[in-house]
Fold this sequence. Notes:
Layout: E1 2-3, H1 6-12, E2 27-31, H2 38-50, E3 55-60, H3 62-71, E4 76-79, E5 82-90, E6 100-110, H4 119-124, E7 127-130, E8 144-146, H5 160-170, E9 176-180, H6 181-192, E10 208-211, H7 214-221, H8 225-230, H9 232-243, E11 246-249, E12 255-257, E13 262-264, H10 277-290, H11 295-317, H12 324-339
Parallel strand pairs: 1-13, 2-3, 2-7, 3-4, 7-9, 9-10, 10-11
Antiparallel strand pairs: 5-6, 5-8, 11-12, 12-13
Helix pairs in contact: 2-3, 2-10, 2-12, 6-7, 10-11, 10-12, 11-12
Bound molecules: ligand NAX and adenosine-5'-diphosphate.
Amino acid sequence: MQILSTQYIKTLLPPRQDNSHKLTFGHVLNIAGSIHYRGAAYLSSVAALRMGAGYVTLASSPGVCQSVSGLTPNIVMHPLLTRPIVYAKINPTMPESMSFGLQSIDTESIDVKALTQIHTLLEKASVITVGSGLSIAQSKDEYIASATQTSNMEIAEGNHGFFFALLGALQTRSQSMVFDADALNFMSHRLHQPPRQSNTPLLFPKNSIITPHPKELARLLNIDVAAIQADRVHYATKAAQQFRAVVVLKGHHSVISNGDSTFINPTGNNALAKAGTGDVLTGMIGGCCAQGMSPFNAACLGVFLHGLCGDLAASDVSNYCVLASDLIDYIPKAIKHLLTL
Ligand SMILES: NC(=O)C1=CN([C@@H]2O[C@H](COP(=O)(O)OP(=O)(O)OC[C@H]3O[C@@H](n4cnc5c(N)ncnc54)[C@H](O)[C@@H]3O)[C@@H](O)[C@H]2O)[C@@H](O)CC1
Ligand SMILES: Nc1ncnc2c1ncn2[C@@H]1O[C@H](COP(=O)(O)OP(=O)(O)O)[C@@H](O)[C@H]1O
């Protein structure tokens, strides 16, 4: 286990040749966002471009695409087919006809059929980032059902049907992929909630990077957050081996492991403890992959620079005031800082 050094990180910065065009620096396909988490789609998409990717396509619900295009002209939109879901709490002690308490309506869940809309994009993309704000459901710990199917009650968890169809399609692809947030929660749910719907092993595709915060890793490994926090290097390494993926265990001094080599990140501070900063990290790592970096190097560079953005931002505006969206504006400063060393 080693601490990432500035000198080492500087050697990882991908070259920018003069004889180039936008696709020289890669195409990020970002599958992110949902009715409640439109910001996550924005933050992850723009962070990838700022990190140096040449082209970013956001594939999401029409509502998310519309919101993000209202905030930035830089992202290419690919609106996906949706289907409405009415969420309700089930009270198992009551007869089926009376057992629903309406919670909310999600008009932007992505339809499984949307997979056919992104086949070409899956082939063209240099890297695929999945999960920032994708929405597992209104509440992860309660049973939630689709009231549109009362006669045949189906457990509906946000975009879970679409996610698993996508995961199946991704298994044969060789691009780098970044799985964050709700992509990890979908995997945990399928891994640990009975009954398992299939006997086939549930794996991330080859060349995957997963970016769990401690609770997300606890869900994936089905253990306590406290156990993870007590030995972060051990559990990041174990998860990398178990899932055959590069793991970024987020938090103070994030740990990056590919199962053989493990680094601890020295940059970052408590200013990063703010909603949406993890979505920015996903975009930054995706942007590194798009420029041809290996998954492990992309994770190391992305995490280091993300922390450096937090350090530069905190020194300018204090640890209290940094927003996730501010971090994106500090990516150029963090890269210039590295380049001038
Ligand atoms: N503007 C937006 O649209 C935002 C969207 N977000 C999305 O919201 C969805 C839900 O993410 P959340 O993180 O809110 O929900 P989670 O349910 O995954 O995480 C919240 C829980 O995890 C625990 N936790 C989080 N970080 C931890 C740490 N470092 N150590 C120990 N425990 C920790 C919290 O105490 C809490 O119980 C994700 O898809 C995410 O991408 C968030 O990133 C927030 C901003
Ligand atoms: N106290 C801290 N010190 C350093 N980095 C932190 C701290 N708190 C959070 N971070 C970083 O901020 C990001 C938070 O990501 P995450 O928990 O996924 O948030 P969100 O889901 O809101 O985007 C991670 O990169 C994490 O390493």
